[in-house]
Design the sequence.
């Protein structure tokens, strides 16, 4: 069986340490692991691995791995202090479409639009180091990088209005953003009250989506700008 990654878990004591101690211990473990892998397989071996740190765990990804590569990695990592267990695993492409579709359904997108949303979600989103689903670099021009699905859907109203049921006038029903269903930082729907209701991280995402490159900090009291 040829795996494409190895999941490294830290010892249980790691989680009860202070943030400063965790950073120190994590750096120590990573440096020790790199040195041990170089000693075991050489510099050519270590450069083939991608170290990914996520949610107090370490993932060692390798493309076109051989069984011998994984076996050596597991053998080396298993002898290091501070590591509780190692699990060979399969690395699959990020598939955030299910989560994006779930958000779209809650925001009253039309059922007929969900397949389109799923397809774009697979291309536009990734999971960051903290486990959040966010838009990635290199997506369609005009869309904001680093925002979550609800902010992305608000932006997509400009190019995919047919995803929502149209009212008797114009525009889409249902919504994202503030309680009135729009981005409270956008020029057309600027609303200080709705801005203040958003959590700081979400407010930053909506502010950046509206054109504030520095996020929500200091923007709530300012006049809106053109997107």
Sequence:
């Amino acid at each position: 069986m040829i795996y494409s990654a190895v999941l490294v878990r830290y010892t249980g004591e790691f989680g009860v340490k202070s943030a400063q101690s965790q950073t120190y211990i994590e750096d120590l473990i990573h440096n020790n692991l790199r040195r041990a892998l170089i000693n075991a397989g050489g510099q050519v071996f270590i450069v083939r691995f991608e170290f990914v740190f996520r949610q107090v765990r370490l993932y060692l990804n390798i493309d076109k791995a051989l069984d011998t590569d994984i076996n050596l990695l597991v053998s080396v990592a298993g002898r290091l202090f501070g590591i509780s267990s190692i699990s060979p695993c399969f690395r699959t492409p990020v598939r955030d479409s299910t989560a994006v579709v779930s958000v779209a359904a809650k925001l009253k997108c039309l059922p007929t639009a969900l397949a389109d949303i799923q397809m774009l979600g697979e291309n536009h989103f990734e999971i960051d180091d903290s486990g959040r689903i966010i838009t990635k670099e290199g997506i369609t021009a005009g869309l904001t990088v680093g925002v979550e699905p609800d902010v992305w859907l608000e932006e997509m109203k400009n190019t995919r209005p047919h995803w929502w049921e149209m009212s008797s006038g114009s525009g889409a029903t249902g919504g994202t953003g503030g309680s009135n269903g729009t981005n409270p930082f956008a020029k057309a729907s600027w609303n200080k009250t709705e801005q203040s209701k958003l959590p700081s991280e979400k407010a930053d995402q909506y502010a950046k989506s509206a054109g504030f490159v520095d996020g929500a900090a200091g923007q709530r009291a300012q006049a809106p700008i053109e997107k």
